[in-house]
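Q: Structure tokens for this one, please.
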Amino acid sequence: MKRFDGKAMILGVRRYCTVSSVVVLGILSALPLVRAQQKEDSSLSACVPSDLAALIVPHGGAVRVNPVSELGGPQRSTLADAAKGSATLSSSADRAAREAHKVFEREARQGRPAAMVNLAVSSLAGWGTQPNAGAALYWLQGAANRGYAPASYNLGILYFKGCGVRQDYAEALRFFDQGSRSGDALSQVNLGYMYDHGLGVTQDHAVAASWYRKAAERGEPQAQYNLADLYLHAEGVYRDEAAAFVWFEKAALQGHTRARIMLGFLYALGRGTPKDLESAYLWISAAALQGDTRGNSTLLSLEAQLTPAQLAEARLKAQSLALGSASLPDVALLY
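A: Here is the predicted structure, written as tokens:
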């Protein structure tokens, strides 16, 4: 189910919808809604670049950074492309990376927290400079000391993964807590995740739910998904399938594919909402069109129960949903 996506920071999905084993709705309805979240091992190699994706871009990514005004578009694009691909910049891009690093360093030394974070990220990744985890930690800590919440979030990510530092859940928890209390929604999701799973702290689903709710109410789709999952399984909150439906729907409307699959399941079973097989097909199909095929077995069973006209209408709406869904940020959420 939850959190860090795919497994992103740990990029794993604690309870993603395991649907491949579902063959027919009759079997599905006889089983509790599944909630898996498989975790993948983290490693130093995973720190760069995948979990630092979309680094030098306006809205940031896994390790979120704000752009420095003097950084030009080509430089920004170069580093963003590198974040999505190889950890090593091509020779043609190296000059742009060095220029960007100079801008970050100049403005970081002037005390700008956003530039400090950018400098830390490029230092950790070795873009425009030699890889230097110590420098990355120094600048992130400097930005965090200035109350810059994204820096606290980033430090939490590094300690959680053991990226450039020894893995330390207690330290990760401390930084996520720091970022959360400064109002950072992504820190709140990850802090909730750590309480949810008892990582670096005594497991407490109720506290997890409270942090998920804060981020969910601010529109963070992963938090909405996680909170819905807690309602569905009565963890830290009373079981409330109607509330689970509402939160899954909020996340689904933002393009969260696992939420779309779970919303489809609820429609198919009539749990938390009136049974509606056409809507079930629509939502699960939209997720499949976005590349999440974990509901495909259920789609096959639904196809046998819908008329050709219903299928045509649902497929048309699913295509519209999939095309209209903006890609969610590749943030390092613990889910």
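A few notes: The chain has two domains: 1-42+167-329+331-335, 45-166. The chain has 16 helices and no strands.
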